[in-house]
């Protein structure tokens, strides 16, 4: 088995055909997945990243996917170093706690890096020129049902009047943070109206979760990246934290202590996970049963995607996986 870095559509297509050939229907349906994962056995310093909070790979936000927990345990027995890379608005500790609550043994991971953690660190240190020029008063778009995200310790003043704001933080898509620390539930279209006011004032946005949608209990939920894309379309300036940016992958490699040549990223989003792996120069495994399941015409867990559909989707997002797998199962 060889790991290949795909930068051309035809190469990605051939690799996807190979993966599907190995993942044929019948008693040995999972043969392709097993062969790819067994590759990791022979390299004890191999870095394996699980991306996407990791909705669509390890769990759906409510329950672990079949075989995910046992697969992690098997990989750990061979010394595989594993890091969670997540476009979660929350701190890394929240991601680890989420996995623990779902029954995952979090001691199997070296750690976790989230886009929310990177955002917090940059707002706190302000040693980056872009962050150094930000003010202290902000419009805070956050969560409601999922739980509002605290800005405690950052020395920021949350305002609900655009005229008083110096920048925007997009943590969620369900509510507007209030000066009192509470969150006012708000529809997406109402948050977008606030963005129209913000762009008129020409204030920048920091988006702590670049994802557009995520899988939650097999349904899609709109994520902060959608607000950021809207703001850019309106003419606003956006600082995208997390995937597909290279910084989050570099942080993971430093944490694990490996180079790009010794890593593989496993994710279900072509735009974020796979494109991010391409940018970082590392191999990748695209899990088709996540956010792209509907686009690929998949109706049940573990169903194999059609080669031509995967190729077309890869071309659409300009993101080319090294491997294509129906699910993360050994």
Automatic annotation (TrEMBL):
The record's listing under NCBIfam families reads:
HAD-SF-IIA-hyp4
Q: From which domain of life does this come?
A: Eukaryota
Looking up Pfam families in the UniProt record yields: Hydrolase_6, Hydrolase_like
Any idea what this protein is called? Haloacid dehalogenase-like hydrolase (HAD) superfamily protein
List, alphabetically, the InterPro entries matched: HAD-like_sf, HAD-SF_hydro_IIA, HAD-SF_hydro_IIA_hyp3, HAD_sf
**Species for this entry:** Abeliophyllum distichum
């Amino acid at each position: 088995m060889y790991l290949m870095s795909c930068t051309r559509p035809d190469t990605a297509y051939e690799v996807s055909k190979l993966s599907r050939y190995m993942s044929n229907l019948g008693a040995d349906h999972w043969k392709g997945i097993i062969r790819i994962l067994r590759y990791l056995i022979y390299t004890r310093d191999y870095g394996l990243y699980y991306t996407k909070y990791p909705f669509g790979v390890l769990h759906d936000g409510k329950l672990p996917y079949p075989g995910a927990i046992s697969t992690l345990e098997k990989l750990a027995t061979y010394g595989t170093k594993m890091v969670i890379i997540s476009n979660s608005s929350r701190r890394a500790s929240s991601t680890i706690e989420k996995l623990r609550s779902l029954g995952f043994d979090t001691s199997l991971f070296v750690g976790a890096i989230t886009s929310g953690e990177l955002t917090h660190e940059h707002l706190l240190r302000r040693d980056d020129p872009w962050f150094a020029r930000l003010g202290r008063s902000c419009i805070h778009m956050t969560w409601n049902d999922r739980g509002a995200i605290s800005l405690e310790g950052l020395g920021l003043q949350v305002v609900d009047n655009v005229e008083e704001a110096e920048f925007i933080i997009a943590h969620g898509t369900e509510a507007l943070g209030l000066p009192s620390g509470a969150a006012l539930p708000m529809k997406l279209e109402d948050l977008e109206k606030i963005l129209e006011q913000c762009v008129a004032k020409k204030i920048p946005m920091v988006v702590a979760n670049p994802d557009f949608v995520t899988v939650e209990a097999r349904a899609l939920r709109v994520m902060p990246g959608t607000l950021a894309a809207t703001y850019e379309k309106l003419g606003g300036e956006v600082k995208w934290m997390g995937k597909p940016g290279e910084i989050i992958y570099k942080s993971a490699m430093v944490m694990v202590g490996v180079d790009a040549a010794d890593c593989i990223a496993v994710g279900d989003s072509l735009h974020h996970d796979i494109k991010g792996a391409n940018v970082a120069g590392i191999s990748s495994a695209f899990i088709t049963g996540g956010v792209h399941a509907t686009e690929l015409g998949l109706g049940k867990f573990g169903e194999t995607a059609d080669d031509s559909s995967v190729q077309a989707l890869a071309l659409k997002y300009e993101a080319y996986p090294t491997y294509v797998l129906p699910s993360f199962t050994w």
